[in-house]
Each structure stands twice: as C-alpha cells, then as structure tokens.
Amino acid sequence: MQQQYEGYKNLADSLKSASALLNLERKSQLHQDIITICNHLVNPSFRIAVFGPFNHGKSTLLNAMLANRTLPIDLIPTTGASITVKYGSDLRTRIILVDGTEIYRSGTEILQQFAILDGNRQMRKDVASVEVFCPHPFLETGVEFLDLPGTNDRDEQDNLVREQLLSADLVIQLLDARKLMTLSERENLRDWLLDRGIKTVIFVANFLNLLEPDEQKQVQNRLLFVAESFRAELPPGFSNLYRVDALPALRARLKGDVAAANSSGLAAFETALQNIVEILQPNCGSVRLPRVQAIASQILLSLKAKIDPIALEIKSFDDKQNSKIEIKQKAANLIYKGFTTSIEELRDWLALPKLLTKYQADAAVALAENKFKDWQINILKKDLNKLELAAVKWLYQAYEFFQEERPQDLLIPFPSEPQLILPPKPNNSDDLSEPGSIAVGGGIGWLLGGPVGAAVVGSISYLLNKNIQKQDEQLAKESYHQEVAKLCITASEDYLSSFSNQGLSILAEYERRSEKVICFVEFNQEPLEINKKRESLHQLQNGFNLLLQELENVKILSNHQPYKEIPKYTNTNRKYSPQPERVKISPEKDPVVKQQQENTAKNTQTRVESVSPPPKASPSPRKEEVEAKFRDWELNEEIARMKAEMRSPKACRQTSPGSQTGKQQNSTQSNKAPSQPKSQTEKDKITRAYGILGLQAYASQAEVKQAYRTLVKKWHPDLFVNQPQLLKQAQDKMRLVNDAYTILSDK
After folding, report:
1. Among positive and negative, which fits the CA dihedral 482, 488, 491, 492?
2. Is the pLDDT of residue 45 over 50?
3. Is 182 helix (H, G, I), strand (E, B) or coil?
C-alpha cells in the first residue's frame, strides 16, 4: 500500500508540474480540478460524498447514518460549504479560514456560524474548509463523509460541488422520488460524473414514503430504469439503487427504534454501503485513476496545444538555417569538384613525359631557328594560361560565394631560355650528305648559316621521329649538324624538365592554399527570441513526457506519444571544408610521375634515345573529353542556381527541407509549361524549337534541358574534327539546337 501511495504521490507531483507549465488562472476549472485530484490521490482515507439538489435530504441522510444531529438541517438550503466528516474520539469541529486561521470547537454548533448560507443565501468567502470529527465505528475504518452544498441554487455552490466530487471515491446521489431525475440532474450526472471518470455511484431515492402506494410502484419502476441505464462500476452482486426515507430514518435512530430504521430502508443501505467500501477501499487506485485519466487528458491536450506551434516555428527556423547551410555545402562540394578536376588536368599536363611528347620537337626546332621566345609565348604560354585560368576560376567562384580568403592567381613561371654552346663548325661540306639532313627545306638555318642550319633542323626531326639509337655509333665521326641537333633536343628536354618540376611544386602549394578559399563557417548564433522559445519548448516537452511516464507507471494508457528530446542549441561556429575524392583524370598518373623521375635522373648522353615521337595531326577528341566539358558547364549552371537561392529569402524558404509547401512550389515551378506566347510568329518559333529538340509542344523546362543535354552529347562538333562531312552536319545541327534551347529558355 505504501508503494502504491508513493506512486500516486509522484503522479500528483507530475500533474502539478505539468499544470504549472500551462500558466492556468487559479480560479479556472482545470486548475481547481488538478489541485483537488492531486490532494485526493495522496489522501489515504476513503471518501463518500452525498450529492444532489438542495432540499433532497442529504444532510438528513448523513445524520441518520451517524445517529446524531451532527449536521445542520432545515427546510431551506442550509449547507453553504462542503463539510468533511471524519473519525474523532469526541464530537468536535474545526474551521480553517482562508488566511490560515484554525478555529476548534466542541460539538457542531459553530457550523451555524461558518457552514450555512447567510440571509442572502450566500456562502462565506473567508472559509477554506470545514471538518467535523465524530466517534462513529464506520468512520474509524478510514472512511470520510463529504456533505456537499445543494445544487441548482447558485453557480458558486455548483462550482464547489463539481470540484469536490473529484475527491470522492464513492458518490451517493440522492434523488427525490416526487420529481425523479430532472433535466438538470441528468445533465449533472453526465457532465459532472460520467465525463470525468466518476462511475462509482449509488442512487438513493428519498421521500418515497410521501407517495401513495400506487405511485410508489410506478416510481420504483422508473428508478429501476434509471439505475440500469447508468453503468455503475460497483463490485459484482451489489445494486446501485436503494430506497431510504431519510427523515423517518433519522427519527428512528434518534429514538433507537430498530424496526422503524429497518422499514425506512436505512439498515439495508448501510449494510450494502459498508460491504461495498470494504471491497473498494483496499484498492482505491481502481476508483481514483479513471478521474486522473480524465484530468490528465485535458492537461496533455493543453500542453500539446502549446508545444506544437512552438515546435513548428523552431523547426521552420532550423529548416531555413539548415537549408542555407546545405546549399553552401553543396556549392562547396561542386566548386571543390570542379577545382580538383582542373588541377588534375593541369598536373597531368605538367607531367614531363606529356610535355616531352607534345612540345619537345617544336621546342628543339624553335631553338635551332632562334625562335624559342616566340614559341614559348605563342604556344607553351598560351596552353598554360588556359589551364591556369580553368583552375583559378573555381577559387574566385568560391570567394564570391563564401567571402572567405581572397584567392591568389596561379602563376607558373617559365625557366630561363636555353643557351646553346655550339661546337666548332667544320669545313667539310660532306657533312650534309646524311639521310634526313635536308628534311626541312633551305632558307631557315641562319643560326648556323645556310644549308647547315637547315640540316640541323632536319636532323632534329629525323632523330626524334626515327628514334635513332645505336646506328650513329657506327660512324667514326658524328656529323656536325647531328651534334647540334642533339644539343637542341637535350636543351629542350632540360628546359621542359625544369618547367615540369617547378610547375608541379607550385601547383601542390597552390592546391594546399585553396583549402582556405573553398570553405565557409557555419554560424550557429540563434536569435534571442528563438532561443527563449527553444528553452520553453524543452520545458514543455519534458513536462509532457514526464506526465506520460507517470501515467504509464500507474497503468493509465494514453493515445499520445512522447516527444523526442530536442538537442540544446549551442552558439558555436564550425568550419566546413569539402573533402570529396579527387577526380582521377589520368589512370596512368602514378606511372607518369615515376617516368618523370626516371627521365630527370637520366644521363644527358642517353636523353635522345628515350624521347617519344612527336604527335602527329591532332586526333578527334574522345567522347569522354566532350563529356568532361559538358560536366563543367553543368557545374557552373548548378552553382549559379544556388547563388540565386542564397540571395533570395523566398527561394530559401521554398527549398526548406521541412517545408512541404516549398517542395511542391519548386516542383511546380520546375515542371510547369512556359507561359503562352502572344503573337502567332512567336508561337511558330516556339513550336519549331520544340520540334528541333524532339519534344511535344509546351514540354516542361526540365524536359527541355534534358533534351538539350542529350543532343549536345550526340552532336558536339569536337567529335567530328577529322570527318569534314559529318563536322559540317554537326555544326549545322548544333546551331539549330542552340537556337531552339535559347528560345525555350528565354520564355
């Protein structure tokens, strides 16, 4: 029993804590009900309330049961306060005033002063509670009687009765047999008892003795109907309807007339009442908890009505913040992807074997013709600048988007121009007779003079193209122009090797510095107003969940689910730097680096032998290269879209993850057909544009974009550079496709 009451005490504390979160007015009905039920939960006594309209004989019935004129009775409404009758060794009264003053008196005469209505039939405002102590054996078992004011007299009294009924374990509803179950009584039965979980109710019919025998029989039949209609939760085998003639019963008890008391119905009622109490009293929880469930349900609904709007507002704020962060994260990842792709392309281009393959022959020839500076500016520098700008543009995209550290330009300097020290020029003109020595025509060999210079240039092409290795060693004496050609080849290799090493080193450092540019700080600084609401929400949800838990502990089920605990908001800032996998541009990257290191370490004597043949005519670009260009275009387009979203509060709201409306709006905007054109000419142009893209009229913008992508990948002119007829067809096709896409995009 002690453990049971301890559980009830925890439940009562939880009810009070939850109600405090509602900020209820002290005089509100829910607040009063909560205080009443909480006090009753921890009250070990079994309370029996006598309830009914004024002048139904409630106090008279109680006096008859107590065998004493304990309570004031009169023909007019008298009881002005709820009077609790408890066990005591002698008859005495305790009055507690609102200011805390306690008044003790022997007997019950003081009730005439504090517990009855005044001349204006008003209750005293200064009385908090009235208790009467009576030496009755039934009360000694832990039973208390509660004599309530009559209903249907004054609203103030009705409110008091309604409140006190929650603190009763058993309700005796007194009925007047002369006017059985009026409309107000039926309403009170429904609103004050049934709807509040109070179902341990016994009906007692009074004044049946004042009716004629035939009327008594009719009334008894009606009483049976009333009792059967009300599904009282009493122990099995006990009726919920009894007849007691209260005034004759009181007179019989005062006279000690047992026979008269029996004929009044009092003895049978008392016996049944004592047996019912004996069964219900050990397990008060089965009686009290249904009332708690009704009150707790109101509290939970009220808390939920406060929690949900605050939670929705905070979620909307969080979703908006998260949406901005997600957009930035996505942009950072896209920019990083584009940057690393460009860096890998430049790193691949700077690999020494690639440089030698693409540029060594031209560099050596330019050196032999004394046009190295022009070649460096017009060829090498032009190609380098294009790759540098492709990488740098992504960092400027990042700076524009995140406003972190301003990027520096990527500048890879060129080594000093090679200086050749020529061997002494021979006088023997037969040195010009070898194959390939006149591969490059006359007129360009002024470095060495006349045909000798032409022979040197020819030998460069000959040596590199034919990859001469051992056959020259058979010559007893190497020709002069071959010696000079080898010097040019070696010098160009040294130049490109130095350029490669320095460029790769600068590129690695530039890539490291880029981490300070492609990043942003996630600012977690919540407005004070939202912070206060978050704290309030935390308290409300904790109170809600605690009450649910305590209800579960006492086996009270609820349709509500506990709220998930919201994490506390911390005003901290976190730096976000994307770290996706680097894009692998060249699958043979590692072998290239290895080859570069090997070439750098080789002896100058064997450099010519390791040189790969120069490239022939430019081959047709592979489909993968066109795909890469197209991906680059898509990345730029996606980043531009995200910038627009970041700068548009409306767009941010629409893209909020938690906003279903925003998702629907975005979906509608991306898939709706363009607006109708005004003129017939415009209509015809648009119709042709849809036809060129292979679409139905007024297809969505998403369908237009997808069709354009498909056609670009199929007809990109770069795919047909070595197929003149198809190239012309592809150029015409792409011109039409671009025009169609422009028309439909501008609508």
Report:
1. negative
2. yes
3. coil
